[in-house]
Structures are given as structure tokens and as C-alpha cells.
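re: that chain from earlier
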Amino acid sequence: MKAEGRRQKTEGNRQKAEGRAASTALCLLPTADCLLPTPHSPLPTFRRGMTLAELLISMTILSMMSVVLAGMSNAVNSAWSYTKGIEETDLQAQAAIERIEYMLSQTGTYKLVNQPTRAGIAIVNRPVGKSQLPDVLVLWTGGRSGGMAASGVQARLPIVSELLIYSWDSNTPANLIEAAFPGQTEVFDFTASDLSTQVINLLSSKTAEIIPLCERLRVSSLSATGAATSSPPPATGPSSPYGPSMPMSAPSSPSTSSTSSSSALSVGNLRFTLAQNPSDTELATATPQTTAWTQLNWPQGTFGNRSGMRQATLQIELQVEPDGIVRASDTVTAIPFFGSASLRYVYEP
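^ sequence. v structure.
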């Protein structure tokens, strides 16, 4: 009896196992019955998706964050570019000024028979339309290697190959250039009546060897009559410790005639100033060994009966664009740079 009971119990367990296997096999079929829980299977779980409103809000927040990040990136890039431009501009301008100041220290002097001692330095007014711009500097340095000052006072006129000329390039006004003239054997007289014509011809000659010292000069426009090419009054550059800055002409306005616009001339914003102490006028009115001679404003009070210490002071002003882009003349992006150097020599009448 006990054996029969165990057999029936085992048979019942086997039938239950077969039933569970059949139920599991039926759930593998792609029918809706699979969604119904079986006695021995876990309940199915479902994950709810985002609603349209939630999706729109998420996209709006993401768009706002993208705009903010793009603005920050653009601001950082602009600040970096401007700072880099300022640094490069400062390097170019300072290098150009230091080059001119150094070559001034190499400038020589000469004294001809029955003539006073003269320093080999001159500022020439360049004719632009009807204007005269003091933007050409001539130095008698002995060439790019310098050394003329160490040669002492010469008893001859300078030679063109010993000159250096500084100005803006007539072909590219944004360039401050240094021009040398190797091989030129003509004499050069700093007191010549046609000095301006000689210098301008030298700058435009094919034998001139030109090196750019700065390529970011601010460029202004002048009409052929020397006036600004626009109807508004010309803007004025930053104030200079050496006096009023050069006039900066404004860009052409729609009311400007086509004739004036076509005749506009571009000029680089560069200016040189030379002051000699005592001045030529003071020396012309004073005779050695007189009271007027002793009362001249000699540098450091250094003078004798027939000679005295004279000082030539060169002042440099240039305006440079921080990024090298040529803009309208009435913009305020240009940065002014100033330089000053002195040359002292013994003057004899």
C-alpha cells in the first residue's frame, strides 16, 4: 500500500512538471497570451517614454545652453585674438622706434670750409595733394651697419650710399619702411634747396633697397586738394606729448562726389619732429665771444669761445592698427606709439 501511494505521488508530480513545461512553451509563441502571467512567471514591467511637452522643454534647455556656450567661446576667442594683436602690434611698433633711435645714435656730422657744423639729419615734408606731411626722415649713418658717428666730424658732404630714409611706403601705406641705397656714389647736401625733391626721387628709385619695419600703420585718406574725403569734419588722432597729432581724415560719405572719391590719396599715419637746441635762428643772431653767444641755451651749459654743445632731438609718432586690418579713418582702434632720441655734437660756426 505504501509503495502504491509513493508511485501515485510521483506520477502526480510528473504531470505537474509537464503542465508547467507546456505553459512555458506556449508563451514563446508571438501571441497576446504571452502577456498573461503564468502561475510560475514574474509579472512583466513596462518603461514609460517622454511626453511631447517634456521633449520640448528638454530641447529648449539644451538650445539655451548651446547658445550660452557658443557666446562664451566666441568671447574667449575674440579676447585672445585682440590680446595677440596688441602684443604683435607693440612688438612691431617698439622694434621700429628702437631701430630709428639706434640709427640716430650712429648719425655723423660734417663741417665744410667757412660753414657751420651740421648733423646728418633732416625731416622732409612729403607733398600729398596740396598737403605737406612731415613723415620722411633722412639720416647719415654710413648705411645699415652704422658707424658714421664714430668717424668724427667729416670735412666732406655725405654720399647717398651712406644714407638711410624712413617713411611709409607709397605703394603700401600701412608699411613703415627703411630705405638704403648701396652703390649710389652721388653726394648729398642736407642744405640743398631741392632737398625734398631729391629725397622723394630716391625713395621712388629702382636702386632703393626697402625693408619694412612695421606693417600695421593706420592709413588715412586725403583728397587731391589736401582735404578730408568726407563731409564730416576730420577726426583727430590721440593727443601727443609733442603737440597736436596729425589730422586723421574720415571715410567718404554717400554725399561725396565720385570725383573726390576717385582722387583720394592714402597715407600712413607717421610723423617726425626735429628740434635743435640752440636753434638755427638763435645761432644766426649770436656771434662767438659775445654776450649773446654765452646766453644761448647750450645743453648742460657746455660751450666755449668759438664752439658749443648742440643737441638735436628727434620725436617719432606713429599710429598702428592692433590687428593689421586697414579700416576707415574715423575708427578709434589704432594705438599711438611715441619715441624720442637725442644726438649731441660739437657745433662750430
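Residues 83-347 form one domain.
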